[in-house]
Design a protein that fits this description.
Helices cover 59% and strands 4% of the residues. The chain contains six helices and two strands. The radius of gyration is 17 Å and the shape is globular.
């Protein structure tokens, strides 16, 4: 993981909110969480760290090209009270919702690839860097990089294989 994301004091809260928003079943979460954190979650936190450098409280919808684009509050609504933990939870829940609104199809594509890679025992999942993170995920600089890896990785999956399917095969 990048040092900025890994050392971010809110990384754990961000990961928890993102995994909740992706809605990964607990049985699958156990199998892929170690892959979500150094890839998707790291890039998610890095994206928001960059946004915080622009404005930590509000974000303009990056896909709204109208003259009056939508703006979203992303600071956790401290005026709503509830203490620091509640503000932190609201902040990362909102950021997860927005990120999934804007990038959800790509995120779910990557999650499908992660699930399938674990299920079939892809070797890259065990090729780790000094921090113990899969090298291929640690080297991704943007979500687009993970999408390309997922597209290539899933190219060889049988067409009737649904990695998120619950129940017997």
């Amino acid at each position: 993981m990048s040092k900025s994301a890994q050392s971010h004091p809110e990384f754990g809260s961000a990961v928890q909110a993102l995994i909740h928003e992706i809605d990964i079943p607990a049985s699958i979460q156990r199998d892929i969480r170690h892959l979500v954190e150094p890839g998707l979650a790291r890039l998610f936190v890095e994206w928001w760290i960059a946004q915080d450098g622009v404005d930590a409280d509000f974000i303009r919808d990056p896909y709204d090209a109208s003259d009056d684009p939508a703006w979203y509050r992303t600071d956790g609504w401290p005026n709503m009270g509830g203490g620091e933990d509640a503000v932190l939870r609201r902040k990362w829940e909102q950021r997860s919702r927005l990120w999934m609104r804007w990038h959800g199809d790509d995120v779910l594509h990557v999650v499908d690839w992660l699930i399938w890679s674990v299920r079939v025992g892809q070797g890259w999942t065990h090729d780790t860097n000094a921090d113990g993170d899969p090298t291929i995920l640690s080297e991704a600089a943007a979500l687009d990089d993970l999408v390309e890896l997922a597209t290539e990785g899933l190219r060889h999956r049988p067409s009737n294989d649904n990695p998120g399917r619950q129940g017997p095969r």
